[in-house]
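Hey L., structure's done. Input below.
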Amino acid sequence: MLDVHQLNVFVVAAEALNFTQAAQQLHMTQPSVSQHIQGLERHFDTQLFFRNGRNLELTDAGMALLPLAREAVMLSMRIDETMASLKGGIFGHLIVGCSTTPGKYILPHLLTSFHHRHPQVRVTCQVTPQTDALQNLVDGEVHFALFSMDYANYPDIEAVSFICDPIVLITPLGHPWAQREEIEAEELLDADFIMRESSSGTFHAVTEALKQHKVSISDLRILITLGNSEAIALSVQEGLGVGFVSQMVVDRICPGKVARIRVRDLNICRNIYIGHNSRRPESKSQAAFWTFLTSEMANPLTVSS
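Output:
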C-alpha cells in the first residue's frame, strides 16, 4: 500500500531536484530521503529519477507520478484538516423506534429541539407497534424507542418517563352525553365504542383505568377496532360511535368537532417513556441524544388534561 509520507518526500524531492535540499525542507537526513525514494521505486518497480552525481532529473515515470502524488498529498492534508475540525463536534445517524401517536405528535418536537443543538446529526424514525420498537431496541436495530408499555421484561433497557399523555373519551357533538357535565363509569357499558387494537398503549391504559371502577373493557360494546387514533377521532366525528383517544390527537385532528366527555373519577394518563439499550456501546451522537433527553429536555412537552 502506498505511503502518503513517501509520496510527500517524492514531491519535495521532485520539485527541488536535490535530495539534500529536500531533506532540509522536510527536516530529515539526506540518506532517509534517499531510502524513501528507493522504497517508492521498489513499490512501482520503476526508476523515478536519473541520478548523475548531485544532479537529479525525473524519468518519464517520475514525471507521470508527480501530479498524482501532489493530488494524493493534498487529499491527505484535507482529510486530516476535516477530521481535526470535527473534534468536539457531534455527527452521526440516530434511529428511533416509536408507535404511531408518539411518532407523529411527540417526536417531531423532540427532534427539532435536538437538531437546533446538533445540526449535523441525521435521524431516522421507524414507526412500528411498540412491542416491535422495544424488541428492535433489544436487538440493536434502533438506538432509542418511545413506548408506553411496561418494560420490566427487558432488563437491558434503561428508560426515563418522558411525558404523560392524557387519554380522553370523545363523542359526536350530537351525542346525549355531550350535553352533560359528566357521566358515571357504568354508563360506558351502554355505548358503541371504536377502539384501538389490544396491543396498543391506549388500549392498555384504558383497560387499567377501567379496572379501578370495576368495569372490564371486554364488557364494552366494541363495534370497530382501528389501528390508529386519528382514524378513531374522525370516525367519532362522523357519528359512528364513541372512543378513547390521546388528547394530542383530538387537539390536532378535530378540535371543536367532537365532544370531550368527563367520566366521574376516571383520569387516564398514558406514561410515555423513551429508552435505550444500556448494554450496547453508544456513539458520540447517541450519547449526546441521551444527555439531551435526560438533562436538557427535562419535561420537554406538557399536555394539559
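Residues 60-85 form the longest helix (26 residues). The CA atoms of residues 185 and 274 lie 32 Å apart.

-- N.
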